Amino acid sequence: MLSFLPAPVRGIIAALLLVLNTLIHAPILFVFALIKLVPIPPLRTWCTRVMIRIAEFWISCNSGWMALSGRTRWDIEGLERLDYNGWYLVTSNHQSWVDILALQHVLNRHMPMLKFFLKQELIWVPIIGLCWWALDFPFMKRYTKAYLAKHPEKAGQDLATTRKACEKFKTTPVAVFNFLEGTRLTPAKHQQQQSPFTYLLKPKSGGVAFVLDAMGEQLRSLLDITIHYPDGNPSFWDLLCGKVRHVVMHLELKPIPAAFLGRNYQEDEAFRAEFQAWVNQLWTDKDAHLARLHQQYPTPMDRSSH
């Protein structure tokens, strides 16, 4: 709709709309977060649902400025199998800061709102940190092996704290999200890792195993998402400027092996090897899937290499 404007102007307008959207919705969210502090379970459950609706409307407004800024073609497969009232473990390849907003845009109201396991320190991020807290994003405190060696009494406390944080998800459907690669794919990172995959970094199994250990009985399925940008990996500024012209996203539901539930990833060596093999197979399949997508929707780099 704003295609007649220069891209930088569209970017500035979109950035202002994003900030305005957040500043409008955050105070409303905080009001219900304060009401939720009243120790009445039905009231807390009602407030949780209201706050989720507020967050979903925030996401819808973001979809609005994305449509205003540019015309993106969305090729989505597998959306019809999702259940808004389900419990999911969700993972995806990670190529750009755009991934999160693209995922929110596609999945909004088709499944429970995505929630990330966050480092405890992130609660202090201005405005957004409080929003994460109000929306019950689970904050976790992970101890390093070196720290536990000096403070063995802390062993198991990180998992216990996370389990406590996840108790509230028993009454409200949730989709817990984790980028298995842990960071965005770049040629430098790919080379530094000497990744065995063509289009992916090495997956990190520990975070997902931690989630399953904390709330495995609640999570019914794994939603495995593969994202591909035919125009090349965009920057967040590209999204604001309306330069993301095409997004391909494939969603596939996979069972979580029952044998993985209630197992200790850190202490059970046999389980750790079994779990890592499962994750590596997921990534092998995803790499092959991305190879097919690169053939079907070649990027500028794919075309220049031929």
Report on the structure:
By secondary structure, this protein is an alpha/beta fold. The chain has one domain: 3-Layer(aba) Sandwich (Glycerol-3-phosphate (1)-acyltransferase), CATH 3.40.1130. It has eleven helices and eight strands. It has helices at residues 7-35, 41-69, 98-107, 128-134, 145-150, 157-166, 187-193, 205-215, 236-240, 269-296, 300-304; strands spanning 73-77, 88-92, 114-116, 118-119, 139-140, 175-179, 221-228, 246-255. Strands 1-8-7-2-6-3 form a six-stranded mixed beta sheet, with helices on both faces. Helix 1 (7-35) packs antiparallel against helix 2 and helix 1 packs across helix 4 (128-134). It is globular. It comes from Halopseudomonas aestusnigri. Residues 88-230 form the Phospholipid/glycerol acyltransferase domain. Keywords: Acyltransferase, Membrane, Transferase, Transmembrane, Transmembrane helix. InterPro entries: Plipid/glycerol_acylTrfase (IPR002123). One of its GO terms (molecular function) is acyltransferase activity.
Structural class by helix and strand composition: alpha/beta
Total of domains: 1
Secondary structure tally: strands = 8
Largest sheet: 6 strands, mixed
Counting DSSP H or I runs of 4 or more residues, the number of helices is 11
Radius of gyration: 20 Å
Q: Estimate the strand proportion.
A: 5-15%
Low-confidence stretches: none
- Predict the CATH topology: Glycerol-3-phosphate (1)-acyltransferase
CATH architectural grouping: 3-Layer(aba) Sandwich
Organism: Halopseudomonas aestusnigri
GO molecular function, one term: acyltransferase activity
Transmembrane segments: 12-38
Protein name: 1-acyl-sn-glycerol-3-phosphate acyltransferase
